[in-house]
Amino acid sequence: MNERPDTDPIEVKVVDPSQPDTAPETPAEEQVSTLRLVATLAVAGAVAGLLIVLVNLHTKPIIDEYRAEQLRLAVYEVLPGVARYRTLYRVDDALVAQVPEGAKASDFRQAYVGYDETGEMIGVATSRGESGFQDIVLVIFGFEPESGILLGMKVLESKETPGLGDKIFKDQVFVDQFFARPQTPLAAIKKGSGKGLPGEIDAITGATISSKVVVSIINNGIADWQGVLQQADLEQIVPEEAP
């Protein structure tokens, strides 16, 4: 009689469809709400913006006061011998002591008329900016309106290349040339190539472009202001500021 070979019993699982599925579920990955993310970023941005505004409100008056003081000192520097000066505003190509009602002084170009201890006018200072090798170069300079003789120059703002272009205010030999009463218009020349003509300014070796920018600012500034200043009765203006 043939015997059936030994086999493992087959286990059959009976599933009752009426019973709930008790198999463990895989945890679903938590999703970050887009709205919540946007709201968080918006709040963070608003807080950062508020902090910037508060810092600006706090520091702006300090910065403005510092710049005003530096400008005041620069006027005396580029007008050697000045004891007092008065600020005039250019309104419709005329010089006035007060800006129109409701207007801001910063909206108008300004000229600073300097006087000695006796009240005699020495010269006028004004500022002007032009594009340099890197960025805008801002210069204040003093001159005699009638003769056009330059009295002095100071660089107020510059981002020229350190070690080269920044010599326009660090190289004292270059700066001193503008206080030697050169006749304008000036001419930037290669150092050592001058012919002894009035208005020659030796450019800085390696910073010729920056040197020429300073000369251009002064020439263009005097050409722009000289006619307006000559038409004004500057000798009759009473100085308003003391050292």
Topology overview:
Blueprint: H1 34-78, E1 84-91, E2 94-96, E3 110-115, E4 121-131, E5 136-143, E6 150-157, H2 167-170, H3 172-176, E7 187-189, E8 200-202, H4 208-231
Parallel strand pairs: 7-8
Antiparallel strand pairs: 1-2, 1-3, 3-4, 4-5, 5-6
In brief:
With 243 residues, the protein is α+β, with helices and mostly antiparallel strands.
The description of the largest β-sheet is:
6 strands, antiparallel
Report the helical percentage: 25-40%
| Arithmetic mean pLDDT | 83
Distance between the termini: 134 Å
Instruction: Please identify the structural class as seen in this structure.
Output: alpha+beta
The low-confidence parts are 26-30
Q: Kindly give the count of domains.
A: 1
**Strand order, sheet with most strands:** 2-1-3-4-5-6
> What is the helix tally?
4
- How do the helices and strands follow one another from N- to C-terminus? HEEEEEEHHEEH
Radius of gyration: 37 Å
Characterization of this structure:
- The protein has four helices and eight strands, in the order H-E-E-E-E-E-E-H-H-E-E-H.
- The chain has a six-stranded antiparallel β-sheet with strand order 2-1-3-4-5-6, with helices on both faces. A two-stranded parallel sheet has the order 7-8.
- The chain has 243 residues and is of the alpha+beta class.
Keywords:
single chain; 243 residues; alpha+beta; six-stranded antiparallel β-sheet; two-stranded parallel sheet; 4 helices; 32% helix; 21% strand; globular
